[in-house]
Amino acid sequence: MSWSDEVDAIIDGDLTAGLAYITPAGGVVVTAVAPLGLRDRAAGTVGFTTSLGFGKKLERIKRNPRVALAYHAREHGFAKSGLYVLVQGIAKPVTEPDRDYIENVISPRAERFMGPPRRGLFWDRWLQAYYADRVPVTVEVEKVQVWPGEEIVSSPPSQSPPKNGTGPRVKPLGVDLPHRLIGWVGSDGLPEVAPFDGRVTDDGTIEVESPIGLPAGERRAGLLAHDYNAKLIGLEARQHTGWLAADGSRGTYAPHTVSRFKAPANKTLLLLANGFLARRGLKKARRAAAG
Q1: pLDDT average per 10 residues of sequence, the chain (291 residues)
Q2: Which domains does the chain have, with CATH numbers?
Q3: Per-residue DSSP letters for the chain?
Q4: What's the pTM?
């Protein structure tokens, strides 16, 4: 598996990407990750890093390693192409942090996007957990699709409705952030992800329309709306899992679960928060590992 120079520049240069992974119920979660240009074109792999504190995400990826990365946003990165790139494949997460890999591979790539790290007695100690709990996830690429130019959306059969019904279960979050992605399981069992425009309606659903298209029928789907600034300072993410009913270009989305995250638009506050969350996440991961 290989890809063009233009696609390689996008994978190398995008500051953020949308990661889609599959839930036990056959739905999809879409979340934002920082891929940091991780890829091996000759080996046909791409990658990203994540935190051991996000144990639920790692467990789901280990249970079903089919994932997709949507390279969809050019701000604050280095790529200039207007292509939307969807990379699908099989994820192989590492569950034990490798200090040498973090220092010699991840850190230089992160510095390229986010500038030199904070140094000093306090910061070295405070951020130790943040760097110690980062683990890489390598994706063995099975498909690389680009739009405009290719038909990304397949037509899998509709899924059976959930026992609790298909209507909204939570109040929908606004989808007015500049980057919006919706994902579902495609015909080959790999997640598919498309950008969309949308609006929240009075009945608690979200009207969605994608220039790439949506799968006709009804199914579980994940939704992400997010924004970010240079060096990932001041990012915001709003996520749902829910039920999508679509006719191939437009659809109605009923949210069933909700989560949101907003980081401070101040580097010092962001680093303090990262250190705190990493410490808490490491403790949680160690308790889970201990049984």
Answers
A1: 94 97 97 94 93 77 96 95 97 81 85 82 71 83 95 94 96 96 98 97 97 97 95 90 94 97 75 68 64 60
A2: 5-289 (2.30.110.10)
A3: ----HHHHHHHHH-S-EEEEEE-TTS-EEEEEE--TT-EETTTTEEEEEEETT-HHHHHHHHHS-EEEEEE---TTSS-----EEEEEEEEEE--S--HHHIIIIIHHHHHHHH-SPP-SHHHHHHTHHHHHTEEEEEEEEEEEEEETTS-----PPPPPPPTT-SS--SPPPP--SSEEEEEEE-TTSSEEEEE-EEEE-TTS-EEEE-SS---SEEEEEEEEEEE--GGGTT-EEEEEEEEEEESSSEEEEEEEEEEEEE--SSHHHHHHHHHHHHHHHHHHHHHHHT-
A4: 0.90
